[in-house]
Amino acid sequence: MRKANEASREIAKRIKELREILDITADDMSVSLGVSVEEYLRYESGEKDIPISTIYKIAAALNVDYTVLLTGDDPKMDTYTVVRRGEGVHVDRYEGYKFESLAANFKGKEMEPMIVTLQPSDDKAPLVIHGGQEFNFCLKGRVRVTVGKNEIVLCKGDSIYFNPGLPHGQAADGETAVFLTVINE
What we know:
There is one protein chain. The protein is α+β, with helices and mostly antiparallel strands. It has 2 domains: 6-71, lambda repressor-like DNA-binding domains (434 Repressor (Amino-terminal Domain), Orthogonal Bundle); 110-184, Sandwich (Jelly Rolls), CATH 2.60.120. Helix content is 27%, strand content 30%. It has helices spanning 6-21, 26-33, 37-45, 52-62, 66-71, and strands at residues 89-94, 97-101, 112-118, 133-140, 142-147, 150-155, 159-162, 168-172, 177-184. A 6-stranded antiparallel beta sheet has the order 1-2-3-9-4-7, with no helix packed on it. α2 (26-33) crosses α3. It is globular.
Protein backbone atom coordinates (compact mmCIF):
# COMPACT_ATOMS: atom_id res chain seq x y z
CA MET A 1 0.00 0.00 0.00
CA ARG A 2 1.37 3.41 -0.97
CA LYS A 3 1.33 6.05 1.75
CA ALA A 4 -0.22 9.37 0.76
CA ASN A 5 2.07 12.39 0.27
CA GLU A 6 1.41 15.94 1.52
CA ALA A 7 -0.72 16.95 -1.50
CA SER A 8 -2.85 13.82 -1.08
CA ARG A 9 -3.25 14.53 2.63
CA GLU A 10 -4.52 18.04 1.80
CA ILE A 11 -7.04 16.53 -0.62
CA ALA A 12 -8.11 14.05 2.09
CA LYS A 13 -8.54 16.91 4.58
CA ARG A 14 -10.80 18.80 2.14
CA ILE A 15 -12.87 15.66 1.51
CA LYS A 16 -13.43 15.06 5.21
CA GLU A 17 -14.33 18.70 5.82
CA LEU A 18 -16.85 18.79 2.94
CA ARG A 19 -18.36 15.46 3.96
CA GLU A 20 -18.85 16.70 7.52
CA ILE A 21 -20.30 20.05 6.37
CA LEU A 22 -22.78 18.18 4.15
CA ASP A 23 -23.62 15.84 7.05
CA ILE A 24 -22.76 12.71 5.05
CA THR A 25 -21.53 9.74 7.07
CA ALA A 26 -18.32 7.86 6.28
CA ASP A 27 -20.53 4.75 5.93
CA ASP A 28 -22.65 6.47 3.26
CA MET A 29 -19.51 7.59 1.39
CA SER A 30 -18.03 4.12 1.47
CA VAL A 31 -21.24 2.66 0.06
CA SER A 32 -21.40 5.25 -2.75
CA LEU A 33 -17.75 4.52 -3.63
CA GLY A 34 -18.09 0.75 -3.39
CA VAL A 35 -15.29 0.38 -0.83
CA SER A 36 -15.23 -0.73 2.77
CA VAL A 37 -15.67 1.97 5.41
CA GLU A 38 -12.18 1.08 6.68
CA GLU A 39 -10.65 1.77 3.26
CA TYR A 40 -12.63 4.99 2.90
CA LEU A 41 -11.42 6.18 6.30
CA ARG A 42 -7.81 5.43 5.27
CA TYR A 43 -8.36 7.69 2.24
CA GLU A 44 -9.95 10.41 4.32
CA SER A 45 -7.25 10.31 7.01
CA GLY A 46 -4.51 10.63 4.39
CA GLU A 47 -3.14 7.23 5.40
CA LYS A 48 -3.69 5.87 1.87
CA ASP A 49 -3.35 7.61 -1.51
CA ILE A 50 -6.71 8.14 -3.22
CA PRO A 51 -6.86 6.92 -6.85
CA ILE A 52 -7.81 9.68 -9.30
CA SER A 53 -10.90 7.69 -10.33
CA THR A 54 -12.00 7.64 -6.68
CA ILE A 55 -11.45 11.41 -6.39
CA TYR A 56 -13.91 11.84 -9.29
CA LYS A 57 -16.44 9.60 -7.51
CA ILE A 58 -16.00 11.44 -4.22
CA ALA A 59 -16.48 14.79 -5.97
CA ALA A 60 -19.71 13.48 -7.54
CA ALA A 61 -20.93 12.17 -4.15
CA LEU A 62 -20.19 15.56 -2.56
CA ASN A 63 -21.71 17.37 -5.56
CA VAL A 64 -18.60 19.48 -6.23
CA ASP A 65 -16.19 19.84 -9.12
CA TYR A 66 -13.17 17.66 -8.49
CA THR A 67 -11.04 20.83 -8.70
CA VAL A 68 -12.48 21.83 -5.32
CA LEU A 69 -10.97 18.67 -3.84
CA LEU A 70 -7.60 19.22 -5.55
CA THR A 71 -7.18 22.94 -4.85
CA GLY A 72 -9.84 24.05 -2.36
CA ASP A 73 -11.17 26.55 -4.94
CA ASP A 74 -14.19 26.44 -7.23
CA PRO A 75 -13.53 26.65 -10.98
CA LYS A 76 -14.50 30.12 -12.23
CA MET A 77 -14.33 30.15 -16.04
CA ASP A 78 -17.15 29.03 -18.31
CA THR A 79 -16.15 30.54 -21.67
CA TYR A 80 -12.50 29.50 -21.83
CA THR A 81 -9.45 29.08 -19.68
CA VAL A 82 -5.81 29.36 -20.69
CA VAL A 83 -3.07 27.48 -18.91
CA ARG A 84 0.47 28.58 -19.72
CA ARG A 85 3.31 26.07 -19.83
CA GLY A 86 3.96 24.68 -16.37
CA GLU A 87 1.14 26.68 -14.73
CA GLY A 88 -1.53 24.00 -14.41
CA VAL A 89 -2.60 22.62 -11.06
CA HIS A 90 0.18 20.22 -10.04
CA VAL A 91 -0.53 17.15 -7.95
CA ASP A 92 2.04 14.54 -6.94
CA ARG A 93 -0.14 11.44 -6.76
CA TYR A 94 2.48 9.16 -5.29
CA GLU A 95 6.19 8.53 -5.61
CA GLY A 96 7.12 8.69 -9.29
CA TYR A 97 3.72 9.86 -10.60
CA LYS A 98 2.61 13.45 -10.85
CA PHE A 99 0.11 15.25 -13.02
CA GLU A 100 -0.70 18.76 -14.08
CA SER A 101 -4.37 19.54 -14.64
CA LEU A 102 -4.80 21.70 -17.74
CA ALA A 103 -8.42 22.78 -17.17
CA ALA A 104 -8.86 23.03 -13.40
CA ASN A 105 -10.36 26.52 -13.60
CA PHE A 106 -13.10 25.62 -16.13
CA LYS A 107 -16.61 25.07 -14.72
CA GLY A 108 -18.66 22.07 -15.77
CA LYS A 109 -15.87 20.19 -17.52
CA GLU A 110 -16.93 17.16 -19.52
CA MET A 111 -13.37 15.96 -19.90
CA GLU A 112 -10.16 16.34 -17.93
CA PRO A 113 -6.91 17.00 -19.82
CA MET A 114 -3.73 16.39 -17.82
CA ILE A 115 0.00 16.13 -18.42
CA VAL A 116 1.35 13.12 -16.52
CA THR A 117 5.02 12.64 -15.67
CA LEU A 118 6.17 9.16 -14.69
CA GLN A 119 9.53 8.26 -13.20
CA PRO A 120 10.94 4.83 -14.04
CA SER A 121 10.26 2.17 -11.44
CA ASP A 122 10.58 -1.57 -11.09
CA ASP A 123 7.04 -1.66 -9.69
CA LYS A 124 4.12 -2.59 -11.92
CA ALA A 125 1.73 0.26 -12.69
CA PRO A 126 -1.12 0.31 -10.16
CA LEU A 127 -4.30 -0.63 -12.01
CA VAL A 128 -7.44 1.48 -11.68
CA ILE A 129 -10.95 1.40 -13.11
CA HIS A 130 -13.23 4.35 -13.82
CA GLY A 131 -16.06 5.29 -16.11
CA GLY A 132 -16.03 7.20 -19.37
CA GLN A 133 -13.29 7.05 -21.96
CA GLU A 134 -9.58 7.81 -21.86
CA PHE A 135 -6.98 9.02 -24.36
CA ASN A 136 -3.20 8.97 -23.80
CA PHE A 137 -0.66 10.65 -26.11
CA CYS A 138 3.05 10.09 -25.44
CA LEU A 139 5.07 13.32 -25.40
CA LYS A 140 8.44 12.07 -24.11
CA GLY A 141 10.08 8.73 -23.40
CA ARG A 142 8.16 5.47 -23.50
CA VAL A 143 4.93 4.77 -21.63
CA ARG A 144 3.95 1.19 -20.82
CA VAL A 145 0.14 1.16 -20.82
CA THR A 146 -1.72 -1.81 -19.36
CA VAL A 147 -5.35 -2.21 -20.44
CA GLY A 148 -6.97 -5.38 -19.17
CA LYS A 149 -4.55 -8.20 -20.00
CA ASN A 150 -2.83 -6.21 -22.74
CA GLU A 151 0.38 -4.21 -22.41
CA ILE A 152 1.16 -1.60 -25.05
CA VAL A 153 4.32 0.51 -25.21
CA LEU A 154 3.81 4.03 -26.53
CA CYS A 155 6.75 6.03 -27.89
CA LYS A 156 6.82 9.78 -28.51
CA GLY A 157 3.97 10.61 -30.90
CA ASP A 158 2.02 7.38 -30.25
CA SER A 159 -1.45 7.38 -28.70
CA ILE A 160 -4.07 5.04 -27.31
CA TYR A 161 -7.82 5.53 -26.79
CA PHE A 162 -9.45 2.99 -24.50
CA ASN A 163 -12.27 1.97 -22.20
CA PRO A 164 -11.09 2.78 -18.64
CA GLY A 165 -13.74 0.45 -17.26
CA LEU A 166 -11.04 -2.18 -17.75
CA PRO A 167 -8.24 -2.34 -15.18
CA HIS A 168 -5.53 -0.04 -16.54
CA GLY A 169 -2.40 1.80 -15.60
CA GLN A 170 0.65 3.54 -17.03
CA ALA A 171 4.34 3.24 -16.18
CA ALA A 172 7.55 4.74 -17.53
CA ASP A 173 9.49 2.26 -19.62
CA GLY A 174 13.18 2.74 -18.84
CA GLU A 175 13.33 6.55 -18.50
CA THR A 176 11.17 9.45 -17.40
CA ALA A 177 8.05 9.52 -19.55
CA VAL A 178 5.55 12.31 -20.13
CA PHE A 179 2.11 11.90 -21.67
CA LEU A 180 -1.07 13.86 -22.24
CA THR A 181 -4.16 12.14 -20.95
CA VAL A 182 -7.73 13.23 -21.56
CA ILE A 183 -10.37 11.54 -19.44
CA ASN A 184 -14.11 11.84 -20.03
CA GLU A 185 -15.79 10.44 -16.94
